[in-house]
Structure formats: structure tokens, C-alpha cells
Amino acid sequence: xxxxxxxxxxxxxxxxxxxxxxxxxxxxxxxxxxxxxxxxxxxxxxxxxxxxxxxxxxxxxxxxxxxxxxxxxxxxxxxxxxxxxxxxxxxxxxxxxxxxxxxxxxxxxxxxxxxxxxxxxxxxxxxxxxxxxxxxxxxxxxxxxxxxxxxxxxxxxxxxxxxxxxxxxxxxxxxxxxxxxxxxxxxxxxxxxxxxxxxxxxxxxxxxxxxxxxxxxxxxxxxxxxxxxxxxxxxxxxxxxxxxxxxxxxxxxxxxx
Length: 257
Hints:
Elements: E1 6-11, E2 16-22, E3 25-31, H1 43-63, H2 66-77, H3 81-106, H4 115-124, H5 127-136, H6 139-148, H7 159-178, H8 180-183, H9 201-240, H10 244-251
Antiparallel strand pairs: 1-2, 2-3
Helix pairs in contact: 1-2, 3-7, 3-9, 4-6, 5-7, 6-7, 7-9, 9-10
């Protein structure tokens, strides 16, 4: 090769960073353990392959011809196929679970008798009114606007309104699904002895917000796994003298190099 193989490793405190260099190309592979359930157990063999190659890189550069070096690297990278296939299986499971969660949260109830009126009123509101509606409307009212479609929220002017509508509808869907309102009933007092019959909507929505953070964390784990597989494909492509796309299909066991 024009430039010898070099694989360096650094511990960032949030995982290992490998820098793979060869033929004037470089690819970083960040081993992040914040991955979907079942994927993290496949990290150890990946770390082992990259670490061992880094430790013997100087010997390989010295002892092998360019063709011999590439043949050896292709053989070593074959050890990455089982863990990558395992990670992809875990990623598919996690993505399907996440999609099912969003499907449940985004499901709209049947149209109510006042849906058309709600939509007409929302359409006439200025941006401040639309933003206020997002925070004060009940689930059926939000569903009416969501069913009407994104354009009614003037996304070209303020995309945050539609984003806010979707986010709050999901919170209210969680409250509805898990009966959170009943878990946050008010406390009776001298001034209001009937408070237990009046659910604390604010507390229920706060609980739902915390639950949505967990959903967002699951989405982040899936993105971390996608990024790891993509970066690993670039690194293997550099070492084996092929495109990242070819390396990916090699790592999934779909094609030989």
C-alpha cells in the first residue's frame, strides 16, 4: 500500500475510539455501549479484532507484500461477520419495537362530533393562538387537528407548532394508555375536600414526558448502532481495498470480498 496499515485505540471515557488508516484514507470507529438490548454483547469480538490488528500492524506491514497484506486483512475481517450479523438482528428487533410504540402513540381515535368545528377554529388562529392550543387542547381536539394534516399548522412559518402538536398528543396518548391521571389524583384539603376526584393533569403530563424520554433514548440507541455499523463498514473497506457498500454486504454475510 502507499501508506502502511495503522490502527490506533483511545479510551474516551464513553467507549473506545479506533482510528483505522491505510492508503491515505482514515475511518474512525467509536465503540459505544449505549446500544439496543442484545447488541452490546457483540462489541467484545469487534474490539478484539481491531485491537489485535492494531498490535500486529507494524509486523504485517514489514513482513507481507501489499497483496499479501490485503489477503490477510480480508481473512481477519471475516471474524467481524458474526458479531455484525448479531448486531443487525438486535437492531431490527429494536427498530420494530420502537415503530410499534410510535404506532400506538400516534393512533387517532374515531372522529368526534365537534371535530370539524375544532379544525375550523384552529385554522383561523394566529401563530400565538395555535401555540396556545397545542398546550391546552385535550386529546380529541389534538387528534382532530392532526387528522386534518400538517399544512393546517403553517409549518412553513413555524414548524415547531406541528412538532409540538405531535409531541403533546403522544404524551396524552401515554396518559390515556396507562391511566396516569388516576395515579396523580389531587389531595383533599379543607378548601377542596373533593380534590381526589380531580386528577393532577400537570403531574400526569410530567410523568408522560419522562416516559417519552425513555422512548427517545431507545431511538438514540438505534442510531448509535447504525452509526457503528456504518463506520465499521468504512474501516473494513479501507483495510480490504473495497467500497464501504461492498464492505457492508461482506459484513452482513451477503457477499464475499
